[in-house]
Design goal:
homotetramer, alpha+beta
């Protein structure tokens, strides 16, 4: 396995001009693409259609190269919201098709490996509940195997795209006599992200199987994963899981590392990663952002949770995105909002894909 | 002259509980207060009434200590908008009443000095035009004299609160047959801020008197002040000017320095100030933020200017506030939006009030 | 008792110029004012400080006429949000001080009567729960007695201002080991409004005492009051109750009637009232608005509940305000958002204060 | 010519399920479709991608029936913004392919006729200026001919979709040394809509050719068209013009009429149309909405133009949409925002497509 990661700026949710250029000049090979992580310029909340628009555009675009079925099997994970300095873009992840054995480094050096798995579709009332936690845990384990990562310590980022409850979904559940976990589309996004993160924590051994239940979702913030990054959207009914990590069975010049932001202004967490890997080039930064549920940051009051004009996830992305961009010098990074059970309350995981300096 | 600067958290625009506590314990002496720079939690745009609410509250509060007239002569400069991590608070600036000569350091050490001056009231049609530029230039010179700062190089921050055009103001101008500079309350804020900043640049010799005219306002972004910080609000008709700098005729343990952010993620500008003054304590950070008018930051597209849900000043404050808070470790800093002609396009001034370590 | 009702336009939350003019010319007598119902131009949601700003302004204004204590005993009920065509204003309600017997009409004609009562302050965890329901029910009964209205059928509008859960309130409750009803400031407004409305329904016999419990709040929408209008704000900790109706012990030329809007476009409900009282003059229209929780209006999908940029209460006020203004020909009416348990789901009470044509 | 008009609800910008059902059962014949007027649930402002998303979806959908070229020749006019009660939907307009002569009524009865024409693409700097006015005037005349409407008095609605200035467009113009009409994407929408409306007014003889110039655009509000409805979007560079009216050369049971709303609450204008055509069935209502530029409605202050959280076009659509929906009893109507030079200031055209009762 050999993973390539290419950042592609987009001028709008349906822009594929730069992507086409990169394919034309051979930097991206459509048949090898396994996932696209996008940042699109919607509100990142319930009625953000830029995510679906981008997915529809990409599916149609890749269909022209590899056919509809292969294009449909690529994992498209769109995170809405480019508040503040954040730049809309796609991170295109490709995996070579040759056998892993051939490519693994002889000296046991671990390189970036990526595995992708989907869960089954969920019914509206399963979101934020036991079923979602367990299905995601199982999918994360499968994705690790797909990535040929044996040790959970080698996993540095688990990206999960999960569904949300729409008004229609709530009506559907109730028409069958069952009550969804929450009576609010916007809040349902938090429950779905939270249950997915707890599932990842179980799979990676961060939390014991018996330690976590649906009562913990959006309730016990002390339970979290340090590598899960989950984002909710209305454009899918299953969870899409992408595991990123390092594997001795992978080849190539990329590798990954991660830290955990303690709060929204904890730039030190990224700074440490950058210093420890000072000889390597930064390919992409991936992070989660959230408004501290305590209403405080470093003892100071923030107003994100009381703001009825701008959703707190938008505030949080703007803040964390700017902090990380100021350190890596690039606003075209992946910062996604809503970090329920992803890192400590008010904080979140931050991961970096590095390119080894091979000179 | 001896200047004291105290940061006071507020729980809402009308909260004076912590201010009262600080007065009770002698940290703030009402009769010495000359200015309050506040960050209040409104949208910082046209219909932000948190600024006026805070001013009304403070005036009434100080009236209880020093009477209505003295309370009315304090300069209340409220900047709306605490997006992202920013914490609502007031920065209370006091000046001792004893003569400057008595207090000046024998060794010529320069300490923080502050001068305050108001312009006359402006008519709606004067905003953003020649009259505002010239009146502000004159007021800045008077405020330097008031602060006993002789050399413009010793000025590190010029805070100006200026009026905006309301719907009523536009009707008024037109009823007298004159057209205001712009037909949009929100845009008028930029013109008023811009004209004020150009006035400061003239007064400080950053731009020549003959170099700047009203045609430059919100047009020629190459003309700017590196220390002006102007903010617009509907609660006043004149410009209030506060000059901050260092003077050999001032005593005390505070002093000031400043840098210029090249863009919204230029944390390096603050980092340099912090390193050069590593032995001193940071008392307060003051900065301006704006969305780069080019639509780009470090060559990457930002979406702040195309966002019809959130005004670009709100995005910019969230971004710059988080970058600076992550470096100084405190989200209770003064970051104000709309940096027209205040620093280079997309950037802005950043100033720090330090306390000398006297051990 | 003789009630006068005067509508006063305001140019901003702190504008009292027209109010002063009306007092100067004798149309409003400060010592007789018992309540002010205001529409202020904030977002009507959690961080709407225009309500508190207006209350502070009015208290200070009336203090100048009647002293601080009497000014403090006036009931200030501010409803934020003047979306669409709605015009910011105050409805000033005054009651003559002479004895009821003297003024009652000899022929038993019932005229407008108003009664005002406050509950005790609530703890954060009591909001949306049994305590709030029962205290409000008791306060409504007392306010009926205060208004000398014996028959619940003569009550046409019950305006209740109630508290909301702030981030601070939630922390406070949890610090005492109790969990507030909901973990979200914005949603808490609905619970507080809902519990208040159910309390009114009990007091007026619309629902039986044993029929309603806290499990019904924001859950069983079939239970509602046809005359309650409740609105939540952060500026108070108790509920303020104002009962409007007709009483044979009241004199004067005003009287009231009401209808119930079945949905947000049910203009017919107001049209009936206007036609039935065609010979009378419309003094003020008071109504509640909400987004239909089913997501549908007349079988068509609305998007108010899925909109993460604009809160659904803002959408609903804009819609209902315009429908009613188009019928009565005046956009300066009182339309308040969030009609939980106030009228049927998606609908709400609409009441009209009429002036008898005495020619 | 025989025109059919079918309203199709959509569950999201990319929903075609109901459209497909209507085609399956023969109510819509893809090869006859000439235009789709959609209301999509974005903000209707600069960054509303729901319009482009819907267009992309529809083009791809119709391609499956009639091929890419024919699908591309359909005129897709998407108006964003379904504030308040408005329901997202498409109005699908079809024209039979048989010759006009065959179908015309023998008795000279005029029936609904529709003509469609595109202008050439505009350069960014042409928007809001002379070039746009003249090209649109010419296109409206051609569309009348296409609809076989000889008399301008028979034209009841002219729908024009026009471009806006994006940040990229402004950079492009400036790179060629020319300045666009305005330095603000959002405001550019008004200029483009205004120039288009003035072009229509010229073509229909509402204004004389020599009476109107680019200096009038968004300046002289006394110049307007009573039937133009223009809407701006980033998804096209030309203007798409659709003329609706009645023609003796058209057959079928549909016909059209229109009125002009004097202000946002002028429901009487629609009520007159409904009463005059009481025996006919309402097929669709089409109208324009705007915030009165005077800041007043019926002498009362509105806050739409001072609101920095919600754009005034969103307020106006919510208000006008609700007023019209309350009268026709259906929230699934076409109400589009931004009525510059479309009807009098603060008002706008309202048109109704009726179906003759043939019993």
């Amino acid at each position: 396995m050999n993973i390539s990661v290419v950042k592609v700026p987009i001028a709008s949710p349906d822009d594929t001009s730069e992507l086409k250029r990169l394919i034309d000049q051979g930097d991206i090979v459509p048949s090898r693409v396994i996932a696209v992580l996008g940042k699109t310029e919607g509100n990142g909340c319930v009625n953000d259609f830029t995510r679906g628009y981008a997915v529809r555009t990409l599916k149609s675009f890749f269909s022209g190269y590899v056919g509809e079925e292969a294009a449909g099997s690529i994992s498209y994970i769109m995170s809405g919201g480019t508040e503040g300095v954040l730049a809309p873009h796609h991170t295109v992840i490709s995996r070579s098709v040759r056998s892993a054995g051939e490519e693994a480094a002889a000296d046991g050096t671990k390189s970036l490996a990526v595995g992708v798995v989907h869960t089954r579709d969920f019914r509206p009332e399963e979101l934020g509940r036991e079923a979602q936690i367990r299905e995601v845990a199982s999918a994360v384990r499968k994705a690790m195997a797909d990535a040929r990562i044996a040790d959970a310590a080698d996993v540095h980022f688990v990206q999960i795209k999960c569904p949300l409850l729409t008004a229609a979904g709530m009506l559907d559940a109730r028409s069958r006599g069952v009550e969804p976990i929450v009576d609010d589309t916007y809040k349902s996004m938090g429950y779905s992200r939270g249950a997915s993160a707890l599932g990842a924590a179980i799979a990676l051994g961060e939390l014991g199987e018996g330690e976590v239940g649906e009562a913990d979702v959006c309730a016990d913030w002390s339970k979290y994963s340090g590598v899960a990054s989950t984002s909710a959207g209305s454009e899918l009914a299953c969870c899409e899981v992408i595991v990123f990590g390092n594997s001795a069975e992978a080849a190539g010049d990329l590798y990954m590392s991660h830290g955990v932001m303690k709060d929204a202004i904890d730039g030190a967490s990224l700074l440490s990663l950058l210093r420890e890997n000072a000889s390597a080039e930064v390919v992409q930064v991936l992070a989660k952002a959230e408004a501290d549920p305590s209403g405080l940051i470093r003892g100071r009051r923030h107003t994100m949770l009381n703001d009825s004009d701008i959703n707190h996830t938008r505030h949080a992305r703007a803040a964390v995105g700017a902090v990380l961009a100021s350190l890596c010098g690039d606003p075209m990074i992946y910062v996604s909002g809503g970090a329920e059970h992803q890192g400590p309350p008010g904080g979140g995981p931050v991961a970096v894909i590095f390119r080894r300096n091979t000179n």
